[in-house]
């Protein structure tokens, strides 16, 4: 029973993550290449945010909304937590995963000199494993989900 539920939720999460990652990477590509035109964002002469970082913030937000919606209704529909509690928990996990994404992406771009879009996609896949585990046990945890795992 546990293995069947785990396999099913992992498969569904994989689909949700693939869709959300596709949205994220596509928005990242468009923002980096066509909106910002690879130019850094200047708030003032002394406050500059790199084009990859601005693109990541925007694309990650789009991916987060997409992933939350699909995950809530398709991956963990049995959770009895209120949507606002799920969203709050989801965002808490997402902030941690965003930090992880940033660290991985920066390391690949600055340390290994990868092209930013490829680094973004790689970081998303690696951080996705942490994200699944956290959302499964924290964001969408509820009585129905917990009882099915016993």
Describe the protein in words.
With 150 residues, the protein is mainly α. The chain has one domain. It contains 5 helices and 2 strands. Strands 1-2 form a two-stranded antiparallel sheet. Strand 1 and strand 2 form a beta hairpin. The longest helix is centred in the first third of the chain and has 34 residues. The protein is elongated and about 50 Å long. The N and C termini lie close together (9 Å).
Briefly say what this structure is.
This protein is mainly α and 150 residues long.
Secondary structure topology:
Elements: H1 2-35, E1 41-44, E2 47-49, H2 51-75, H3 83-111, H4 116-139, H5 143-149
Antiparallel strand pairs: 1-2
Strand order of the largest sheet: 1-2
Biggest sheet details: 2 strands, antiparallel
Helical residues, percent? over 70%
How many domain units? 1
Unreliable spans are 144-150
* Backbone shape: elongated
By helix and strand content, what is the structural category? mainly alpha
Alpha plus pi helix count: 5
User: What is the beta-strand fraction?
Assistant: under 5%
Brief descriptors of the model:
elongated, disordered C terminus, single chain, mainly alpha, two-stranded antiparallel ribbon, 150 residues
């Amino acid at each position: 029973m546990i293995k069947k539920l785990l396999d099913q939720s992992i498969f569904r999460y994989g689909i949700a993550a693939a869709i959300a990652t596709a949205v994220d990477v596509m928005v990242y590509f468009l923002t980096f290449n066509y909106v910002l035109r690879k130019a850094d964002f200047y708030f003032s002469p002394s406050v500059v945010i790199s084009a990859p970082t601005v693109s990541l913030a925007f694309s990650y937000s789009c991916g987060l909304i997409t992933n939350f919606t699909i995950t809530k209704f398709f991956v963990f529909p049995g959770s009895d937590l209120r949507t606002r509690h799920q969203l709050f928990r989801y965002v808490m996990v997402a902030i941690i995963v965003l930090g992880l994404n940033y660290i991985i992406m920066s390391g690949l771009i600055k340390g290994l000199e990868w092209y930013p879009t490829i680094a973004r996609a790689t970081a998303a896949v690696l951080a996705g494993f942490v994200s699944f585990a956290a959302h499964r046990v924290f964001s969408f945890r509820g009585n129905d989900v917990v009882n099915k795992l016993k």
